Give the backbone structure.
Amino acid sequence: MPKVSVIIPTYNAEKFISETIASVMTQTYPDWEIIAVDDGSIDRTPEILRKYAEKFPQKIRVIVQKNSGVSVARNTGIAASKGEYLAFLDHDDLWLPEKLERQVDLLDANKELGLVYSDSYIIDEKGELKGTFIHSIMSKNIIRCEKFRGNIFNELFCVDFIPLLTVVVRKEVLKRVGNFDPKYKISEDYDLFLKIAQIYPVDFIDQPLAKYRMHSGGASKNLETRIKEDLQIMEYWLNKKPELKKELGYKIKLKKATLYGSLSKYYFGKINFKKAAKETKNLIKSLIF
C-alpha cells in the first residue's frame, strides 16, 4: 500500500501533464501512487495518461469520467486512493523534488497534525518565476497574519493563504470533515481547509516546495466567481461560529470591504455600472455595521 496518494485532476492538459507527472516521479520520497482523474478531456490528455499507466502500472492509475468539475474529479480520486496521506496537484502545476519527503516526515513525527503545507513559487505559462504565493497574497491584503501554524482557523478565515498544491492531509481527516464541496467552482479548497483548521492543528514549511502556474487558461482568472464564493463561505462561518465577530472584530469588516471593493472594481472594468454601484454600497455598509 502506498503511503501517499497523489490526486491529479486533468482536463485538456496535453500541454503540461507530462511535466506535472515528472515532478512527482522525481520525488526523493518514493512511496506514492498517482491517481489521475480525467474530467472529460477532448484533447490528447487521455492518451498521454494511458501511456503512463501502461508504463508504470504499479505507480499510476487513470480514471476517466464525464466532465463534472474539478471538485468531483478530486473526490473521485480520493475515493479510489489507497494512501494514508493525500496530496493534490493540478495538471499544470509542479512539485520540487523534496516536497513529499519533508512533509511526510513532519506528519509522521506529529500525529496530532491534520494537514501540512508550504509556500509555493508562482510561475508563468513558460515556467518563468514571478514570485512566491504567500508573499503575493499578503502583499495584496490589508489584513496581516503572523500565525501560519498550529490552530490557525481565525487567521485562515481572514486570509486564504494555503496553496492547495502544497497540501498533504491525513486521509482520516477527510473521512471526518468531508471532501471537496462541488457547489464551489473555485474556492472549494478554501472551504475544505477551514473545515480542517476548525478541528485540527496544521503545520507549515516556510519554504517554497512547489510551483503554481498562472496562465490564461487557469480557473483563477474567474475573479467574480471566486469573490462570490469567498463571501458565501464567510457568511457560513459567521453563522456557524458567531463568536468570530467578537474575536476578530474589525478584521471581518476589512475582509468584507476588500471583497466587495474588488467585486465593484471588477464590474466597473466590465462597464456594468449598476452592479458596480450595488457592490460599492455593500462595501460601505460592511464598514459601518
Observations:
- The longest helix spans residues 250-269.
